[in-house]
Amino acid sequence: MSGIGMENKPKLVDENNLRIDGRKLDELRPIRIEAGILKRADGSAYVEWGENKVLAAVYGPREAKPKHIQNPAKAIVQCRYNMAPFSVSERKRPGPDRRSVEISKITGDVFESVLFLEMFPRASIDIFIEVLQANAGTRCAGITAASVALADAGIPMADLVPACAAGKIDGKIAVDLKKEEDNYGEADLPVAIIPRTKEIVLLQMDGNMSETEFETALNMAMDACMKIYELQKDALKRKYITDQEVDAEQVEKPNTSRGDNQ
Ligand code: UDP
Known about the structure:
By secondary structure, the chain is an alpha+beta fold. The chain has a single domain (20-250), classed as GHMP Kinase, N-terminal domain (Ribosomal Protein S5, domain 2, 2-Layer Sandwich). Helix content is 30%, strand content 26%. The chain has a five-stranded mixed beta sheet. The longest helix has 42 residues, at 211-252. It is globular. It starts with 30 loop residues before the first strand and ends in a 10-residue tail after the last helix. 40% of the residues are buried.
């Protein structure tokens, strides 16, 4: 798709419709989500998605500063997507570039459509996404992580937002492309949805597909989003149960940390 070194293009789908990592066309890479892993952020999440490793931290709602960026009617959403220099095979120059500015913008837009911003005039909700290791699909992993981090921070929103891409490789529609598939495939279609209403809050496309292929890819990405939604809820439940257990332990053994000599 990116057109680099197409002469060295590997076979992406074999005669049994299996992909280079053995996945079926509609199969996701393994995904692990953990909620609430950073002490000093208001909310946080960590996502491992195939070889992607992505961290999301959320602050707010807090007073937006400097004051001139405040909106008297509602909170603003500020998002920064950042790729660590060591996250990719060819060292990435630190700092923002055109791609990271674009991904920060579209991620902020996604959350503007689910957060109840009118509840917090003049405030800012700040989302930080740090890509520690990348293997294609990091914007979707970032949105998935940020959504869990926002819920972990207790910020009111209409629903969690799962995200996943589908694409076209060797003429076949497949979900969740990894790096080689993204590089040598024909198209990539990142999608994010609000599961309860099935509204699409992110839809981008790189490459070419026919209308029918597009419809198949969109449905495949949306089905994948519903699976990821379950993993997001599960991560939050696990965090909530652990917190409750810790609270219960503290009620049973009050002041154990003070010691006897005080
Ligand atoms: N990538 C890279 N260097 C960069 C930007 C991207 O090696 O400066 C790789 C990285 O693995 C990334 C993939 O290319 O995940 C696909 O990038 P794309 O822009 O399609 O975004 P993504 O699929 O990560 O959302």
